[in-house]
Amino acid sequence: MRLDGSSHRAWPDNSVVGRLTEPQRGDLLSLGVRREFAAGQVLLRQGEHSTHVFVLVAGHVKVLSESDSGRTILLSVRSRGDLVGELAGMDSSPRMARVVAIGAIATRVMAFAEFEAFLERHPAAGRTVNGSIAAKLRSATDKIVDFSSQEVPVRLARALLRILADHGRPAEDGVSIGIPLTQPELAAIVAASEPAVHKALAELRKHEVISVGYRSYVVRDPERLRRFAELPESP
């Protein structure tokens, strides 16, 4: 079955494609070729020398990094409208992470030269892309601070809030995080053991902050989750 990556569907407002103007968006989505990937297929491998760029038009991918000790860290999750792989072409360095499909996905994949020419044609789009890269760097910095100074329950609560901000969508009893993640994947996001994450989730469920299903998490009380994350209440 062909995935619905139609440009007529609304693009997430916080995605790169969603922030482009209609002419910019049409130009970008005309580049390269469409490629679909099955669940678990690898789009990019850490350490490889390649410079092509993906635009996600349907589905989600996870961005993973392998440490020298062999531990896998889930750096981020990207969704419809996001760019993947744009950094490698900018400095010709090896890929910094492995990118894997979460479920079936559809993409536009293009040579970096095509992407670079697009940015030259649309300087305002270049500023949008730069803003996206800056946001990724801020998120990475926040995680480093959390990993070095916070216990697992706080790290987990903050990770759920970040995912909620980027991918959340209304659910019957709250706000779904919007991405199908396993508990081992959550553990990889917060650089913790699975038992520690299981214990932290159990505490959140006990206080009716979240509900947990098969690869699904619904935040029932975002403000209480912020308190578990030791963050000030939202304005």
From TrEMBL:
Pfam families reported for this sequence: cNMP_binding (PF00027), HTH_Crp_2 (PF13545)
Keywords: DNA-binding, Transcription, Transcription regulation
Entry GO MF terms: DNA binding; DNA-binding transcription factor activity
Annotated HTH crp-type domain residues: 150-223
Top-rank taxon, per record: Bacteria
Gene3D superfamilies, A to Z: Jelly Rolls
Keyword Nucleotide-binding: no
SUPFAM superfamilies membership: cAMP-binding domain-like (SSF51206), Winged helix' DNA-binding domain (SSF46785)
One GO cellular component term noted in the UniProt record for this chain: cytosol
Keyword set includes Transcription regulation: yes
Name this polypeptide is given: CRP-like cAMP-binding protein
Source organism: Actinorugispora endophytica
